[in-house]
Structures are given as structure tokens and as C-alpha cells.
Amino acid sequence: MGLGRRLLRLATAIVLFVALVVIGATAFLNTFFNIAGSCSDELMREYPSRGAGVAVVYVSNCGATTDFVTSVLVRGADMPFSPGHDYVFFRLKGKYSVEVRWPDGVLDGTTRLQVLYPREAQVIRQAIRWDGMLIDYVVRDQ
């Protein structure tokens, strides 16, 4: 085998090795440090109402370098759970137990919703009106 052919095989082997190292390193970093920006969302509980939709509590985990986020959204009764930042009306920094209640009755033609969350939680987002609903918040001691 000639020198040129051996150099070509060596160069091909080096290129393949480097490519495998880069792919492996990228997979490792993405898995443990979330460099791709993807988050996993864990559905904690759904609270159906009588006609106003379904309140959904879920927790997002965006990797080792960020904190968990507990979120609440309301989706249509006929729609599947799909976490979306545009529909989230309440958000806490960290992983917490959040309860949602749909009080009976309507106030001035507006559906009411009640969210109960622990006192030690840090609120990131808290709307008092959302998509035609009036939202009350109750801070509770754990």
C-alpha cells in the first residue's frame, strides 16, 4: 500500500474519530447541562370546571443549571395538555404543590378561579384576570 493511500486512510479515521467525539460531547452536554434549551414538563394535576375549561398545574425542568418552575394554565376541555408560555397565568420559582378551585357561582358574569399556593414560594407571574376569568390567590402555610 502506498504512502498516499495510508495517509488518506489515516485522515479518514481522524475525521471520523473527531466527528464521533463532537457528537458524543454534544449529547452529553445537552443531557446534563441542557445546552439545547429544551425543557421537560411534568403534569402534576388537572382541575376540570363546569364549562370554563380545565386548570392544569405542571412543573418544568430545564436542566441542572436552572430551578424548577411550577405553572398553572387553563386549557379548553376538548384540548390536550400542551405547556405553553402564552397560556400560563401563574408561575412559581421552584417545585411546589399548588391547588386550584373553581368556586360555584359567577361574579358579574365572570367565571371565578382560585389558586392556593405555599407562603414560601416566590411568585414569578400572577395575573388577576385571564381570558375572561377573575382569579383569586390564597397563600397558605405548608
Write the layout of secondary structure elements.
Layout: H1 3-33, E1 40-48, E2 54-61, E3 69-75, E4 88-93, E5 99-101, E6 106-107, E7 110-118, E8 122-126, E9 129-130, E10 133-140
Parallel strand pairs: 7-10
Antiparallel strand pairs: 1-2, 2-3, 3-4, 4-8, 5-7, 6-7, 9-10
A few lines on this structure:
With 142 residues, this protein is α+β, with helices and mostly antiparallel strands. The protein folds into two domains: 1-37; 40-140, no CATH class. Helices cover 22% and strands 42% of the residues.
Please provide a written account of the structure.
The protein has 142 residues and is of the alpha+beta class. The chain folds into 2 domains: 1-37; 40-140, no CATH class. 22% of the residues lie in helices and 42% in strands. The protein has 1 helix and 10 strands; from the N terminus they run αββββββββββ. It has one helix at 3-33; strands at residues 40-48, 54-61, 69-75, 88-93, 99-101, 106-107, 110-118, 122-126, 129-130, 133-140. Strands 1-2-3-4-8 form a 5-stranded antiparallel sheet, with no helix packed on it. Strands 5, 6, 7, 9 and 10 form a 5-stranded mixed sheet that branches. Strand 2 and strand 3 (69-75) form a beta hairpin. The longest helix is centred in the N-terminal third of the chain and has 31 residues, at 3-33.
